[in-house]
Amino acid sequence: MNEKMPIPNTIFPIGEKNTAYAQYFVGQSYLNMLTTKGLPIGNVTFEPGCRNNWHIHHARSGGGQILLCTTGRGYYQAWGKAPQELHPGDVVVIPAGVKHWHGAAPNCWFSHLAIEIPGEDTHSEWLEPVSNQTYHPLP
């Protein structure tokens, strides 16, 4: 973990380093799957400056993702739209087919619960990293 910044108080345990998806992140993230039965819910924690790549949740019907922000400060951005600052208690509903990214602010830890919305033929398509030109102007 990042020794320079204090780990935030969290409702859910941070979990292990997110090695399974590390190739799709800039920086270090941690994943604690709270449940994989029924409705998959993962607690994702981002070290300061960490963000995932642009990605799309595809589905023939239904699908998408819901983010329930629990700790720290982060960002969500849909392709072609301005970034949205996120704080504990914020909820982001991401419909299937929307290219987007999410992650921590440059100087703050961030955690959210990631809930996969059930759908038919769902899968995620991981795309390019979020460029420094997109990310570093954020406060």
From TrEMBL:
All copies of domain Cupin type-2, residue ranges: 44-104
Keywords (A to Z) from UniProt: Plasmid
Superkingdom classification of source: Bacteria
UniProt cross-references to PANTHER family, sorted A to Z: BLL4564 PROTEIN, RIBD C-TERMINAL DOMAIN CONTAINING PROTEIN
Name the UniProt record assigns to this protein: Cupin type-2 domain-containing protein
